[in-house]
Amino acid sequence: MKRVHNFSAGPATLPLSVLEKAKKELVNYRDKGASIMEMSHRSPEYTEVNEQAAQRLKRITGADDDWDVLFLQGGASSQFMMIPHNFISADKTADYIDTGSWSSKAIKEANLFGNVNIPFSSKESNYSKVPGDGELNHSDNPVYTYFTSNNTIFGTQFQKEPGTNGSLLVCDASSDFLSRPIDLDKYGLIFAGAQKNLGPAGVTVVMIRKSFLEKQVQSPIPTILNYNTHITKLFNTPPVFAVYMVNYVLEWVEEKGGLPYFEKFNTEKADLLYNEIDKDGFYRGTAELTSRSKMNVTFRLPSEDLEKTFLAEAANNDLVALKGHRSVGGIRASIYNACEMESVKALVDFMQDFRKNNG
Ligand SMILES: *Cc1c(COP(=O)(O)O)cnc(C)c1O
User: Fold this and answer.
1) Which of 68, 98, 102, 129 is catalytic?
2) How far is the CA of 77 from the centre of ligand 1 (A)?
3) Which end of the chain is more exposed for a tag (fewer CB within 10 A), N or C?
4) Are strands 150-151 and 156-157 parallel, antiparallel or unpaired?
5) The dihedral sign for the CA sequence 13, 14, 15, 21
6) Regions of the chain with pLDDT less than 50
7) Is 252 among the catalytic positions?
8) 251 and 141 belong to one structural domain
9) Could you read off the pLDDT of 201-227 as tens digits, one per residue?
């Protein structure tokens, strides 16, 4: 069996050990004569999976009892609507930091429900940076401060949490959740679509602080869109197979050594790539140096023709899914937790050869 070096931005590569485990159990889960996909979401088997996944997430992130873990559907994009629906209204303002396409989509939805203040936007520089200290123009009393911790498309990442003017943070961590330790005290809600760093597509992990829910709006919220509906019990059928896979990815995260391990591992991988990019003028990083992402490494070549050749030759060497998003162009290497060091080394070797032959 041959597996490619997969740099897909999402759905992204998964740990091979997790895939193998699922394969083994696929048609006959724990000798029950049925797949976990074919069992009731209220069965003892699935209940154990769901609870284990939630407990593991709390352990990995260091969350206390004020936190709840929800496994929701509708993708990370549904949270763009669900968050403002629950927390803002015509007389309540939230601050939204605009650092890319995903933030601006969230801002569009928030505008449907309440007041939105934008303390910072890097739109004019094609989202090549995140804000530095002192660059945020907050509103007086924001209900929350919203940010996208890693900008998957533009290859930028907050190196630390932004200021909040006294509010709690709400974070779209879809593309860097569990890639490094997190200071949960600063957060009210964190969400992540699983398909980048946590598992397969189909489930969105939402961590929510119960005390933050006290800030919920008084106006009616449709039942399924109200966070309270999902706390303490399963309201409807969760995406059982996706949660089952996430549970095994979380087990793998713990076995590897948790968030400190992944921070070090991801830094090593990103350093290897950026060192190669910065060697001379042939490759050119698109993000400002202090905003560079350790998850999505974006760069250009001297011409679009060379970029096309680069992608084609890379694919011939089993280095796949390296095409940048159309709004940035060029090359994007997504190197999430499950991307092996071996894959990054193979890419760097290829980049060296390509420069030698074309530079
Ligand atoms: C991929 C992505 C999304 C969208 O996720 P869906 O599950 O497709 O809705 C949102 N935010 C960020 C940061 C992403 O990388």
Assistant:
1) 102
2) 6
3) N
4) antiparallel
5) negative
6) none
7) no
8) yes
9) 999 999 999 999 999 999 999 999 999
